Amino acid sequence: MAKSAFPTIPAIAYEGTGTTNPLAFRHYNPEEVIDGRTMAEHMRFSIAYWHAFRGTGADPFGPGTIVRPWEKGKDAVSVAKKRMDVAFEFFQKIRAPFYCFHDRDIAPEGATLAESNKILEAVAAHAKQLQKATGIKLLWGTANLFSNPRYMCGGATNPDAHVVAYAAAQVKKAMDVTKELGGENYVFWGGREGYETLLNTDLKREQDHLARFLHMAVDYAKEIGFKGQFLIEPKPKEPTTHQYDFDCATCIGFLRTYGLEKHFKFNIETNHATLAGHTFQHEIEVAAAAGMLGSIDANTGDLLIGWDTDQFNTDVKELTLAMTSILKAGGLGTGGFNFDAKLRRTSTDIEDLFHAHIGGMDAYALAFKLARRILADGAFEKLVADRYASFDTGYGREIEQGTTSFKKLEKLVLTKLGEPTPKSGRIEFFQNLLNDYLHNGR
Predict the structure, then answer these.
(1) Is 295 helix (H, G, I), strand (E, B) or coil?
(2) In terms of CB atoms within 10 Å, which end of the chain has fewer, N or C?
(3) How many of the other CB atoms lie within 10 Å of CB of 197?
(4) Contact by Cβ (8 Å): 161, 119
């Protein structure tokens, strides 16, 4: 048996709100049964391999500060396998049933594509053994088409066809590995699929190429029998000035324009929503309205900093609003809550990795419970329904059903209705009602 990487840290237990143990859950009880499913099944928490086990604390102004003892070895492949052993020990101790990765997170890149593929196969085989031994599953896989200098101008939207071909080959292999490991989804994040300036960019041609690339992925999934859900992760900017997957609404328009809407849903990230000028809940509602809500990258940003800081989210109010929208939409299906969040640059202890995930999991679990209470009470739904009640009968219903016209409505206003009486939106009342749930035990 391999030596434990966390010998002083036991599996994290649920101890309730009365505990003072910093290495215990206060709200997340994986075994608690709610509506016939355990909380672990409801939440489907996932650990982001790239942050939890490849993050070094680096930021735009300095190199990494986090050094782990398992990052030493005779060669990159042996280190990758040792790192994976440690990761699966962590997954078990933190009680997360899923994990996620980019191909280059788990396997180092070789000198050629053939060598890279061979390395990835070897490490994936090791992951498969660990999954079988632990019961941990792969929520989703993806390909890193943004770190290597070959992708400095993008992958699928690169102006060089050679690079696009290479990106296609890399995605093909990542899809193969995701299928082999039983991945329930596959994510496309356009890390550099955008432009720095329109002076040197054929925008329509690049968007056409991106659509063609995604169609090829759909075709290949059918060819290999991959049944997982394809997900797009919107992000408005950084590292490019403008990314084509700006937000959910932009992506919905893109998918419908190119006939891809039946094949893709969205992996929504809180921090990306903020960078697009939206709230987390807004992006969830937009995706849900289109039937495209797929999964969540559970993090947040710093409103005082202009880049994607990927912090652990412990804002219960924000998460309760998000969970209410998610539950109203019927949940995430094969998706989950993936902690695409990294330790702060100064959080260098191994224990910090546990504290961070405990805080994030507890915050989401509490939000889940609060959202269920809000929806069960039905107070907000009744108030909203009352606000739109004029569309339930008469001419309002005719407007919704498309059975009236401008002429009919004009005649109605001129002969009967007259001037409308403004009705209050009662915003402060709604806000106070939310606080009753969050703070007053309603």
Answers:
(1) strand
(2) N
(3) 8
(4) no
Integer Rg of the chain from CA: 24
- CA–CA separation, 285 and 388 (whole Å): 18
Q: How many whole angstroms from its chain centre is CA 325?
A: 15
| Interaxial angle between packed helices 203-224 and 248-257, expressed in degrees from 0 to 180 and rounded to the nearest 10 | 80
What DSSP designation does 13 have? E
Q: What's the pTM value of the predicted model, to 2 decimals?
A: 0.96
Question: How many whole angstroms separate alpha carbon 273 and alpha carbon 254?
Answer: 18
DSSP 3-state of 147: coil
Measured distance CA(305)–CA(344) in Å, rounded:
14
pLDDT at 387: 97
Nearest partner of 324 among 288, 348, 355, 274, judged by Cα: 288
pLDDT in tens, 161-214: 999 999 999 999 999 999 999 999 999 998 899 999 999 999 999 999 999 999
CA atoms within 13 A on the CB side of 414: 6
Active site residues: 102, 105
* Residue 80 per-residue DSSP state: H
- Residue range 114-166, pLDDT digits in tens: 999 999 999 999 999 999 999 999 999 999 999 999 999 999 999 999 999 99
How remote is the C-alpha of 262 from its chain's centroid? 19
Q: Which of 112, 103, 123, 263 is nearest to 175 (CA)?
A: 103
> How far apart are the C-alpha atoms of 83 and 352, rounded to whole Å?
17
Rounded CA gap, 343 and 355, in Å?
10
HSE-CB for 29 with a 13 A CA cutoff: 12
User: Could you give the CA distance from residue 107 to residue 116 in angstroms, rounded to a whole number?
Assistant: 8
- Residue 435, both tokens: 């606080």
Residues 334 and 227 sit within 8 Å (Cβ to Cβ)? no
Confidence at residue 306, expressed as pLDDT on a 0 to 100 scale: 82
The token pair that represents 50 in the structure block: 């790239």
Mean pLDDT of the chain: 97
> Alpha helix (H) ranges present in 194-330?
203-224, 248-257, 270-275, 280-289, 316-328
153 within 8 A of 191, measured Cβ to Cβ: no
* Interacting residues of 71 by C-beta distance below 8 A, sequence separation 6+: 79, 83
Which stretches of 73-160 are DSSP H helices? 76-94, 103-106, 113-134
Distances (CA, A) of 431 to 49, 139, 368, 435, 442: 37, 35, 19, 6, 14
